[in-house]
Amino acid sequence: MTTLDQQPLWQPDQQRLQHSALNRFWQQARALSGQPLPDYRALHQWSVNEPEAFWNLVWDFSALQGEKGTEVLERAERFRDHRWFPRARLNAAENLLPRHDDHTALISVDEAGQRHQISYSELRVAAGQVAAQLHDAGVRPGDRVAGYMPNRIETIVAALGAAWIGAIWSSCSPDFGVQGVLDRFGQIEPKVLFACDGYQYNGKWIDLSERLQTLREQLKPELLVVVPGRGKASNVHAALPWSEWLDAAGPAPEFAALPFDHPLYILYSSGTTGAPKCIVHGAGGTLIQHAKEHRLHGDLGADDVLFYFTTCGWMMWNWLVGGLQSGATLVLYDGNPAYPDASRLFDLIDTEGVTHFGTSAKFVQAVEKACIEPIKSHSLETLRVLYSTGSPLLHESYDFLYQKVKADLLVSSISGGTDIISTFALGNPMLPVYRGELQCLGLGMDVAVFNDDGQAVSGEKGELVCRTPFPCCPVAFWNDPDGQRFHDAYFERFASLGMDIWAHGDYAETVPHQGHDGLIIHGRSDAVLNPGGVRIGTAEIYRQVETLPQIREAVVIGQQWQGDVRVVLFVVMAGDAVLDDDLKQTLRQTIRAGASPRHVPAVILAVPEIPRTVSGKIVELAVRDIVHGREVRNRNALANPDALAHFVDRPELAE
């Protein structure tokens, strides 16, 4: 059980306590409920006990545009069949274009230093041109429009144009190979494909012309619109040049007024255990959830500047785009975040005045291991919030951020995922930050940790669940007519106990504090180790291993061995370090002291690299399958599938 004797690393000052958007919302919730709601735990409990009142207030507070209707929640027998705002009519693009002025909407920067920006009024015009052209080409509500694009202004313009007329947007980043794109877009059959013919990464130009020709032949879109990666022209055959296509647009159509659950995005599971699942997210649920997270939990306002390092193949891109609803400025970055060195993104904070900065836990660790101290080398005067996700933020990374980046900083570790296009637990401008913890459970999200008997536990590890329906639940899986795959993905875990609740697949632990509950993520529950019948989260081992400077990164699995499970640790060495017996002993001692004897690996092996998805996540399950001689069914989902060869038939694992 996690102890509660630690002191907070950060606490909000009176300015944040009194003037945050969450405080204003809280006051309105007190007045509406007639309850004192003395602390965050009470506010959260009200938000899940009275979902109609809560989500209705979020709509009004966030000034969502559209016809709300009189009914907030149409209840049903099954969790997934509840309908939110069933009489509402709205348009996602209209809500993501709340301003009509010259305030900067988007700033795009690439690793070569090229910079472009566009105002809200210019963004509205450009998105309207895309909408007009798509409509004239016969694209209608429900048709799919796809982007094989880097993270740049044109990508958001295209997505907004699609949403304007009710088309469904889906995107992959250009580091996906042809088969990886076909595995995704081939399932949804896009009518229009937006693509870039090249991009720069790590100082090199990657030409995509040949890939685009193959994709055009295989996907057969009715339109292929190409954005030149550099210059103004492209040599992709049978493609429409972006600028000329836009310039030929007629007047923008009216925003399509659509139901709350009309599909807005299709996102994809990692696809490392089979064909990627196509997860369909509704416009209203996505909008209202992002508005809540940005405005209330992130305290993002119209004068703020939001940055998140992401590609268009990760749900954090969609989350970043959601920041437009707050009227803020978004900063887009395309390229290697550590090019030419690991201080690159901190430069961006200073040059663009970023107030809310988002990255991955792995990036924070990389900066720390590069011995960079932004607190000395950068101003970071504007920075108020630092988001981290992708994997659990190590306890030691909290120390680094407060000691070496900025002392007065809301470190907001967040956790959710593609499945909900948002988070279950995240930050809070009115609560303290504790080492190793996500600050709080998201408002309106009835999150708990269950043991194997389906009982809620506190201070114990178990399965992260959401007990009651929420607006950003996916609309459906594409090509899943009877909903069986959808059910199996989220509701099968506790079905044998007669429980119809969302099981998210995270191994987690709630931590009670005075007035609120924090959360610790211990890794994916499907990757939990079970030596001697004791469940161990992989994050607990990573936390210890990655404190050693000799280790660049690691992956840990459970190997079936002599009727039990033994822990096997693979490490990638940093620099000239060598995995000798002394270092193995140091690793074991470090893990034993920092975690427990149960966590100590039975076998420690060195590998030159670790397989990852294209969004950078370690694929523990693929490594586990390889070690056990099982086929990894979808290598195309990996950014570096050749890395799997380092785990095949290792003689040390037969001893």
From TrEMBL:
Keywords from the named record: ATP-binding, Ligase, Nucleotide-binding
Top-level division of the source organism's lineage: Bacteria
Domain AMP-dependent synthetase/ligase residues, every copy: 99-469
A Pfam family it matches: AMP-binding_C
Statement: the UniProt record of this protein carries the keyword Ligase: yes
Keyword Ligase assigned: yes
Gene Ontology MF annotations: acetoacetate-CoA ligase activity; ATP binding
Domain AMP-binding enzyme C-terminal span(s) in chain numbering: 547-617
Residue intervals of the Acetyl-coenzyme A synthetase N-terminal domain: 40-95
Protein family according to the UniProt entry: Belongs to the ATP-dependent AMP-binding enzyme family.
Protein name: Acetoacetyl-CoA synthetase
Gene source species: Alcanivorax dieselolei (strain DSM 16502 / CGMCC 1.3690 / MCCC 1A00001 / B-5)
Gene (UniProt): acsA
